[in-house]
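dumping this here before i forget
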Amino acid sequence: MKDGPIEETAEELRRQLADLAGRLRPFPAFWGMTTIQAIELVSPEGFGDDRGCVVVTPQGEIRQLNLVGIPGVAGVADQDHVEEFLELDFPPQEYVAYARAAIAALTAEIDRRG
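structure:
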C-alpha cells in the first residue's frame, strides 16, 4: 500500500517542516559554529542512536550531519572540517517520529525568539 495513512502523514509533516524552518531567519547555528546551520535532533524514543548526528536543516529536511576532518592551513589550524548533510532512508514510521522531534525543536526555537 503505497499511499497509506502513514505515508500521507509523513508527506504532510515534510510540508510543515519546510514551513516552520522557513520562519527561522537566520537559522540557528549548529553548536555555535558560524559555518553550519542546523538543529540537532534527539533520537525519538523507541529508535536507536545508530543514525549518527541527525539534524533538521534550514530547508526543513531531516539529514545526518557528518563532519569530515581535513588538513587545515599550516600554522593557522591544524585541522579543518567539511560538513556533509546525508539523506536518510527512513521507513515512514521512523520519519514521522523524527519529524515530530524536528517540529518540537523548531517550534521551541520560534517561541524562544518571540
